[in-house]
Amino acid sequence: MVVFCLPLLFLLVTSSLASLPDLGYPGWQCDASLYQKSQKVPTSAHSVRFSDIKIIGALGDSLTAANGAGAPKGDPLAVILQYRGLAFQIGGDSSLDEHVTVANVMKKFSPNIMGYSTGIGSANVWEVSKLNQAVPGAQAADIITQARALVQIMHSHNDIDIKNDWKLINVFIGANDMCRYCEEKENGVHSKANWKQNVITAIQILKDNLPRTIVSMTGMFDMRMLRQIDHDKYFCDGLHVFECPCEKKTSFTNDDVSQACHLYMDAQQEIQDSGIFDTTDDFTFVLQPFFNGITIPPLKPDGEVNLDWFAPDCFHFSRLGHANVAKHLWNNIVQPVGSKNHKVDLSDPTIPLNCPDTSCPFISTTKNSVDCSKYLTN
């Protein structure tokens, strides 16, 4: 039996991370005006500059917990590790020069932003997770519990001014629901209606308890891609029997998978379009749909699936995968509602990391995307 002391384990993990491909944007800069805070703290969610955000948080499953993101190639056991510091929405390891995450981009605008994760650990380890409350295996019903936990943590933390601090909460959920959809669709557990109501319930908890909050929800992705990723890769194929049973159920066809995923996408769009989270000035909900139209996984120039994107289980994102997803998510965040990309090229690493629009320097929302002039402030 081999026992590692913690310093040695840290060195081993650090060494494995250093050998993995990654994506950063060294020296990335935007117009100087975009780094300025509002002269007065805004009261409207539609007038919030990126530099006004003081708190960042997240709800989700193992993709937001970043399971396996730093796992060495060929080491599927390391997929159980939650590399939260690399998570595409809220990871804070290193800097934007070395690794893209939404949190690392936000540090450029708000250097003292609080809540991003660092290191490896679970949601209940504050020193690692901070305000990343994602839990591996979570389904939509579980983010209700996560929302309550996030509220409790924020209200109990002395460094967070619940009433006055602007918060950006990222939500990404649906993969585990879809992995059980084919087995339980008859009893409606994972129906579109139930999934939609669970998401609404979780976000309503945030709305009721966290004033001055913008919820950014990453759109569902078409999970038929999984079948292309693990095709002829027998080890991954075998793992997915346990990780995602519906992917391996032959009677659940590619078209069935795609149609079911699009039901969840439709539910997300309906939540945004309904305006139910735009009834007060200090809270809003924005969908980031860049995943929606993608049916092909990232490919190498020779047409083979680029497994550098994925952890050793061919399911979770690798360090590089998180950085690439973060780039596209950030670009969606700065795009106006109604003009957001619904399909991006995952295979192209040269796509730039975009800056906010100087003529509308706010986090894009349903309202300021229609007429930004109504919300312009100094």
TrEMBL record:
InterPro entries: GDSL (IPR001087), Phospholipase_B (IPR035547), PLB1 (IPR038885), SGNH_hydro_sf (IPR036514). Transmembrane segments: none annotated. GO terms for biological process: phospholipid metabolic process. Keywords: Signal. The keyword Signal applies. The keyword Amino-acid biosynthesis does not apply. Residues 1-18 form the signal peptide. One of its GO terms (molecular function) is phospholipase activity. It holds the Pfam family Lipase_GDSL. PANTHER family: LIPASE_GDSL DOMAIN-CONTAINING PROTEIN, PHOSPHOLIPASE B, PLB1. This is SGNH hydrolase-type esterase domain-containing protein. It comes from Caenorhabditis remanei.
